Amino acid sequence: MNDTYGHIEGDTLLHEVGKVLRSSFRESDVLGRVGGDEFLLLLKNIDLEVALDKLEQVKRQLAAEKPCRSAWACMCRKTMTWRTATCS
Predict the structure, then answer these.
(1) What is the SS3 string spanning the chain?
(2) pLDDT tens, position by position, 27-53
(3) Shortest CA distance to 46 belongs to which of 27, 24, 29?
(4) Are 62 and 80 within 8 A, CB to CB?
């Protein structure tokens, strides 16, 4: 992101992603940036399908936040992926 669009656009993207994540998850969930444009979410006591649905909602919300003429909206539409793991 920074290499293609510059640090100002990259910082804007990070702030927007953080804002959407904080508003989308519970206070008891742990959200953090682990490096670059990677985030980690620890969601306790949640069904996997519910968690995946919440992630899809986040992706849609970020993509709709601004028209795709902005760099970060295009990035969210094209490159947002996630990995999941569960434990009991």
Answers:
(1) CHHHHCHHHHHHHHHHHHHHHHHHCCCCCEEEEEECCEEEEECCCCCHHHHHHHHHHHHHHHHHHCCCCCHHHHHHHHHCCCCCCCCC
(2) 999 999 888 778 899 999 999 999 999
(3) 29
(4) yes
Report the candidate in 12, 53, 17 with the shortest Cα–Cα distance to residue 32: 17
- Tokens at residue 85, please? 């793991």
66 pLDDT higher than 70: no
Question: Are residues 16 and 3 in contact, defined by beta-carbon separation less than 8 angstroms?
Answer: no
- Give the chain's largest Cα–Cα span: 43
pLDDT value for 85: 84
Q: Which pLDDT score is estimated for 28? A: 94
